[in-house]
Amino acid sequence: MTGNTFYITTPIYYVNASPHIGHAYTTIIADVLARYHRLHGRRTFFLTGTDEHGDKIAEAARKAEVTPQAYADRISAQFRALWPELAVTQDYFIRTTDANHVETVRRILQKVHDSGDIYFGQYEGFYCVGCERFYMDKELVDGKCPQHETVPEHRKESNYFFRMGKYQDWLIQHIQDHPDFIRPERYRNEVLAFLRDPLEDLCISRPKSRLTWGMTLPFDDNYVTYVWFDALINYLTGIGYPDGDNFRTFWPAAEHLIAKDILKPHGIYWPTMLKAAGIEPYRHLNVHGYWNIEKSKMSKSLGNVVRPLDLKDKYGLDPFRYFLLRDMVFGLDSTFSEEAFVQRINSDLANDLGNLVSRTMTMAVKYTIGRVPEARVAVDEDRILWETASRTIAEVEAGFAEMAPHKALIAIWEFINVTNKYIVEREPWVLAKDPANRGRLETIVYHLLEALRITSVLVSPFMPGSAAKIQEQLGIADGAGQDFASLANWGGLKAGSELKRGESLFPRVELKTDQARPESPKAEVPPIKPEITYEEFEKIDLRAAKVIAAERVPKSSKLLKLTVEIDGERQIVAGMGKDYTPEEIVGKTIVVVANLKPAKLMGIESRGMLLATDTEEGLTLLGFDRPPKTGAKIH
Ligand code: ME8
Q1: CA distance 68 to 73
Q2: 208, 300, 407, 588: which one is catalytic?
């Protein structure tokens, strides 16, 4: 943040795999930050998107037997569709295949080439396709890439290089002059440690003979650039570099958010690239740790990928957002455990916050005439609430300023606990027995309602849905008293507004272990069912069906309502919504069990069932090598 502007970016995610909890974590933090700064009335820009060029994507597309562009379209759409489901409010979703991005990258390449910082040379070394970069011998662990634990390929080729080494001293100086340029400190130290050795120049191209899925260099048609020179520049394209008003406004306030896996490209390549292009460095690089699953890395090949929508569907969106931000100390690794998640829901959300809201609202409605009362008889004992509130607000501000959102949450929960204790100590139910205490009783109720208002504002970046529900109960859903400015003084809640008791915010939950755990590593082939006769099989009428329309079922992330053509049109509700977007599924010819008894799913009739199977990336629909006639019998 600088002054009154804030610019936050997430990494742009590779489209070689579907989104998982790691992507959700980074993007939700970015969203929490964006919402927090908007609440302060600051001009805010939040950028996320997808990284679509390179070997990895080309390889994944080949495996899926589609073009790289079709593959990129498909996975990019999954990311784009996920964010609104997680209440993520980005201002712009960038794709590296977007025409304006291609133009920006080529412009910067040309500029750096013209100034003599890109040259043609030979390179020989070990290349990790997973990281899309060459490794120095000493960086390898037992000859393997430390990130992917795979043996890198030996590659030798002529390529273009960026004179990164030239900017080594400048970068060291910049990091020393700006102690929080890279934070937390452990990552700053890691970058400075890299920089103790001579910085090699950076290979930025690939010959087209080996790879075509990249962006052609503006100064040599036989080469493409991709990966870092392509991807990092998204942070400029997204705000309209070089001339947009957004670029001038937001670039000086740029905050990048990444995990430690891509520290080197962001901490070393990117600032030196910016320097060479004559652009000021970003303001901060904020680096978080890794979510691991039962102490091992989460990866498609280990089959232990945790999918965000599964957790949202089981436990609700706000608890999911809260848990991610509360359970990970920003900067350190964390082990995801569903047990810990459930425990947090029950203790922090159901017990602490949920109870505070329901007790307060019950008393408020019972002891007043259903409106916010006045605080006429405030006494010294009430000070604890104002004092804790103002200390909490300062701690929340500090937590955000130092990029430690978990600290902000810890501070808010202290306030919640102090408020709960205030209820126990003030015993409003005892005062209520004697009408002479009315003034004092109303004052206590007012204090509790005001504490709730403050809590609702403070938690709103983390749990926007729950904050809105609290504010609705307080009768302030129309705007006043919902921003940070309204927290400046105790007493922002206006007497007289109508109170509305709502439903319990966070019901207690139990661990739902069925499909709750991460998929078991390398699932075994399920046992084959008992034999059936041919006549029995014949009873199942399988047909080729064409999907002619598809839409999401409201309030369900999983269900799609399809119109398919078999012997006429019919409606089928299918649980494919996490694996396919409606756009992707329309036009496909698929296999349907056509004589399955109709059933209702979320109140919508479904006549038939699609056939699909599991893959590492989720469900895949059965299809055909050659297109059959619509309605054809499958035998
Ligand atoms: O690296 N824990 O894309 P990517 C926490 N395209 N965060 C995780 C995580 C985990 N286990 N796994 C992934 C790329 N992430 C490049 C970036 S930017 C110009 C180009 C998050 O799809 C985290 O933010 O591999 C990490 O940095 C990012 O996803 C890597 O995403």
Answers
A1: 8
A2: 300
Residue 422 has a CB neighbour count (10 Å cut-off) of 20
Structure confidence at residue 34 as a pLDDT band (50, 70, 90): very high
Tell me whether the omega of the peptide bond preceding residue 184 falls within 30 degrees of 0, making it cis. Answer: yes
Cross-strand pairs, 144: 141
Domain 5-315 has CATH 3.30.70.3280: no
Alpha carbon separation from 634 to 167, 229, 300, 590, 610 (Å, rounded): 65, 50, 33, 11, 13
For 180, phi then psi, to 5°, come to -105, 25
Kindly list the protein residues whose Cβ atom lies closer than 6 A to any atom of ligand 1: 11-14, 22-23, 25-26, 51, 231-232, 234, 258-259, 261-262, 290-291, 298
In the annotation, is 145 catalytic?
yes
| Alpha carbon separation from 67 to 60, 73, 206 (Å, rounded) | 10, 10, 19
- In CATH, which superfamily holds the domain spanning 534-621? Nucleic acid-binding proteins (2.40.50.140)
- Which atom of ligand 1 approaches the CA of 11 most closely? 18
Mean pLDDT of 471-484: 85
Least confidently predicted of 298-302, 396-400, 609-613? 298-302
CA nearest ligand 1 atom 10, residue: 22
401-437: pLDDT as tens digits: 999 999 999 999 999 999 999 999 999 999 999 999 9
Residue nearest to ligand 1 atom 19, measured at CA:
232
Task: Tell me what the pLDDT averaged over the chain comes to.
Answer: 91
Catalytic residue check, 148: yes
Active site residue 203: no
pTM above 0.70, yes or no: yes
C-alpha 390/C-alpha 381 separation (Å) is 16
For 250-274, what is the mean pLDDT? 98
Which of 53, 56, 128, 546 does the annotation list as catalytic?
Answer: 128
What topology is assigned to 338-487 in CATH?
A: Isoleucyl-tRNA Synthetase; Domain 1 (1.10.730)
Asked about 297 being catalytic, the answer comes back as yes
Domain positions in the chain are 5-315, 338-487, 534-621
- Position 265 pLDDT exceeds 80: yes
C-beta of residue 564 within 8 angstroms of C-beta of residue 548: yes
Looking at residue 131, what is its pLDDT?
82
**What percentage of residues in the chain have a pLDDT greater than 70?**
96
Return the ligand 1 atom nearest residue 262 CA.
Answer: 27
Question: Active site includes 20?
Answer: yes
